[in-house]
Amino acid sequence: MACFIVPATEAIVTTVANKIIKNKEKSADKDGKSSRFSAHLSRLNGMLWGGSGLLAFEHLWHGEISPFFPFLTAASDPTDRAEMLHEMATSGSAMAVTVTAVWAVTVIVSMKLEAKRKAVASV
Description:
By secondary structure, the chain is an all-alpha fold. The chain has one domain (5-122). It has helices spanning 5-30, 37-61, 78-122. Helix 2 (37-61) runs antiparallel to helix 3. The longest helix has 45 residues, at 78-122. The chain is elongated, with a radius of gyration of 19 Å.
């Protein structure tokens, strides 16, 4: 019903954080320091926005989202609202945590591969 709201909220937060980090990286580049964390965070944003968008489209396709207030059909009935909040707490949170965990693994693997490549190049 509304499980896409949790990853979409995380995507909003990480998008704002990414903008701040990019600005800080630009000022750090002037000092001769370089960091690429914003590139990794952009990848997380893409994963979260893409997954949330697909889920929102799926919910729209099944008629669970309406073009008028309260926008989510489950939000109009108190019993459905409780079910919707439960779904957001369980499925939505699980999806957000899983996407973030997969992203973290890709960041760790890419950092290790880059360190290995630098070590081989310096020899």
